[in-house]
Structure formats: C-alpha cells, structure tokens
Amino acid sequence: MISVTNIPPHLPCGQFCWYTGLTSVSDAGESGYKTDSVASVSASISSSVRDFPFENGRRYHRFREGSYNFPNDDSEQEREDMKHAMMANLYGVQNILDMGTGTGIWVMEMGDLYPAATILGVDLSPIQPEWVPPNVKFMVDDVESNWLQPPNYFDYVYARHTVMAIKNWPKLMERVLEHLKPGGWFELQEIHHFPQCHDGSMPDKHPVTEYWALIIEALAALGVNFNATLLLADMMREAGFVNVTTRIFHIPIGAWPKNKVLKMVGLYWRTILEMGLQPIAIGPLTRGLKWSPEQVEVWLIEVRKAYMDSHVHSHMPLHIICGQKPGPGVEVM
C-alpha cells in the first residue's frame, strides 16, 4: 500500500499529479496556445445488472436505474476513454479508490504502474474488462449509498468527471472524510461544462452556450447541480478537509491554440463534446424537461455545426481540487 507520507511534495496539490506547465489560456493561447443496508449497497456482476435498459435508442445502467442520466453503450464508452486520453496529456495520477470509474481504463493503467497499490474502481455500470491487473478490483456500487469499507480505510480517494452524476455533494464529502485515513488525500478533477471565451470570438447567444444552459437546467430538474464544480472546494473545507487547494487548467475546444499539446487536447475535447451531444442531451432533456426525442435530435443539428466553427476560440475550465484529512502529523498550511 502506498503511504501518504511518501507523496511527492513538489507535485500539484501535494499528491500524485503532474502536468504540462500550461495552466491558463494566456500561457499557451494566442502566443503559443439515501441510506441502504450493507446487503443492498453492492451488486455482483450478475445477469440482472447486465440486463441493460434501452431508452431513445441508447443503453443505460440497470443497477439503481435512472440515477445516472447518461448512456453506457459502446459509443459512450469510447467517448469516456477518449476523455482519459485527453487528460493523460495534461497530467497523470495515482489513487486507491476511484469513484465513478467508467470503463476502468485509468484504474488498470495505474494498477500496472503501481503494483504495490490496491486499487478499487466503483461504478453503477459493470462495463469494465474481466482481465485486469492482480491489484485491481471493480465493484458495482453507488458511492452515494453506505460504503462497505470501514472508517479510516483508504489512503487516497479520487474522482473525475462525476459532477453530472452526484446529487448530494456535502454528504459524499463527509463519507469520503470518514473513510480516509488521517493524512489521506481526496482529489476531484471536474470540468465546469460551460464554454468561456477570452478574446470575444464567441457571440453571447451561441448554440454551444445555449446547449449547456439547457443541460444545466434539465439536470437541475433531475436534482443534479451541474455547476457544482465551482462550489466543491468550499464544500470540501466545510466537510472538514484541510490544505484544500484548487488548480485550474483551461481545456480548449478545437484546434485553435498554437501550442501543440493544447492543440491536441483541444481536438480531443471537441471530439468528446461532439460525440457527447446526443448522449449528454437525450436523458436530461427527455426526463428533466420532457422534450421528445425528435425535438432533441433536430435541435442538435445547429449545435453540431457550431462546434466546428474555427473562428470561435472557446475553452472550459478544469478544476483540480485536493483536500487532506486532518490527523496526527498533518501540518495545516
């Protein structure tokens, strides 16, 4: 098991993370850029959880059906893996618990890189591979229900791209704090899904901004605060974490940056967003705003075109938020 005392102090947030050194658009932009019994919380990989429901032509998770408003089919898995590839070009990380592991690609890579660590990936969908490194385990579970592990169990808890799924962040923060060992770290990597523009090239009323405004509205109707990214650091402090820090990376949408790394990251992100237009919108808009599937598809035509406008220099901020559980020997900065 990796000891938290061995976390390299020079890395961002004081834990397992490194990055390209490009933390803002100006650096690389224009000049170079509820509560359940323990028995019901966890589900084995049985035929029941693999009996996936279909809705509007897309496949969704069966366990806790409807808790997550986005598909888990093959094309969505491909998009999730592309997110991983994009993030790997910015930095790399290590952890013990991965909440919302998705396809499990990150957990498996970390299992290979850190064979001494025991790495658990948790998700509502059993879509991970069966052949994994010996130190990797996947579990079908709901992180917003009671956890099976005892308090003070994990050295490190990590999650990314979960802001669209979690309904009760304060409660989840409390649960993470309870299950971390004293001195352990909690890291969140969440993108604020609303486009920004630093040079005025994106009009105020743009199909892409209108798209995300509607997604935010629809998820709110379903009990999810899609703007929670902006509140997570304060929530972490209020839960009792210390040494809370936030770093912000700006993820370009498209290949407009001059910097080669950001250009590649931008191509990844635009492709991810374009592939995600229908799977991101179809659940929230039909469930939350009661649109018909046909309405959604027609509306997406203009949004899809808008993403390809090379004259618009837009980006989305990625927040890396880290906090430490207080305890003996923990120095509060």
Walkthrough of the structure:
This protein is of the alpha/beta class. It has helices at 25-28, 38-41, 74-88, 105-113, 169-179, 207-221, 232-239, 260-287, 293-307, and strands at 54-55, 58-59, 97-99, 119-123, 136-140, 154-160, 180-191, 196-197, 242-253, 314-324. The strands form 2 sheets. Strands 3, 4, 5, 6, 7, 8, 9 and 10 form an 8-stranded mixed beta sheet that branches. α4 (105-113) links the parallel β3 and β4. It is globular and about 55 Å long. The two termini are 26 Å apart. Mean pLDDT is 83; it is low at 1-45 and 90-94.
Tally of individual helices: 9
Spatial separation of the terminal alpha carbons: 26 Å
State the share of residues found in helices, binned by percent.
25-40%
Strand content: 15-25%
Largest sheet: 8 strands, mixed
What's the rounded overall pLDDT mean?
83
Gyration radius (Cα, Å) is 20 Å
Number of strands: 10
The sequence of SSEs as H and E is HHEEHEHEEEHEEHHEHHE
What are the low-pLDDT stretches, counting only 5+ consecutive residues below 50? 1-45, 90-94
Large-scale geometry: globular
Helix/strand/pairing class, anyone?
A: alpha/beta
List its traits:
disordered N terminus; alpha/beta; 18% strand; 333 residues; globular; 9 helices
How are the SSEs ordered, and which strands pair?
Blueprint lengths: L24 H4 L9 H4 L12 E2 L2 E2 L14 H15 L8 E3 L5 H9 L5 E5 L12 E5 L13 E7 L8 H11 E12 L4 E2 L9 H15 L10 H8 L2 E12 L6 H28 L5 H15 L6 E11 L9
Parallel strand pairs: 3-4, 3-6, 4-5, 6-7
Antiparallel strand pairs: 1-2, 7-10, 8-10, 9-10
Helix pairs in contact: 3-8, 5-7, 6-8, 8-9
